[in-house]
Amino acid sequence: MKIKKIKKGDLVQVLRGKDKGKQGKVLAVLPKKGKVLVEGVNKVKKHVKARGPKQPGGIVEIEKPIWAAAVAVVCPHCKKPTRVGFQIGKNGDKHRVCRRCQGLIDEGGK
Ligand SMILES: [Zn+2]
User: Fold this and answer.
1) Rounded distance, CA 53 to CA 48, Å?
2) What is the pTM of this model?
3) Residue 81 C-alpha to ligand 1 middle, in angstroms?
4) What is the Cα–Cα distance from 95 to 85, expressed in whole angstroms?
5) For residue range 59-89, what is the model confidence (pLDDT) as tens digits?
């Protein structure tokens, strides 16, 4: 499954599940799994074994990837979760645009 609409560093909002409504930055995109890792979203407690005096064991909270389909990119212009469209630039490069305000999502048009 390809994830074309979401990129690392995007701000996204969760649409479904226990973290519905939360926003966070995309830390990683996992195209093979169809999932994204979002900062502060889908946190789970994990038991960690002690690995030595400097790394004691205990319970840590980590984020787990969630389905890419369950998040929407937050437009940097209208600040709302939006559907992403595509626009072909003058040089034939593809830009992501907000379907609400038509603003470019990719700052600088990378
Ligand atoms: Zn917008």
Assistant:
1) 13
2) 0.84
3) 8
4) 8
5) 999 999 999 999 999 999 999 999 999 999 8
Cα 58 to middle of ligand 1, angstroms? 43
> How far is residue 97's CA from residue 100's CA, in Å, rounded to a whole number?
9
How many whole angstroms from 30 Cα to the centroid of ligand 1? Answer: 25
Q: What percent of the chain has pLDDT over 90?
A: 77
The Cα 22–Cα 97 span in angstroms is: 22
Looking at the domain 1-74, which fold is it? SH3 type barrels. (2.30.30)
Numbered ranges of CATH 2.30.30.30 in the chain = 1-74
Taking the C-alpha atoms of residue 54 and residue 79, their distance in angstroms, rounded to an integer, is: 42
Residue 1's pLDDT is 65
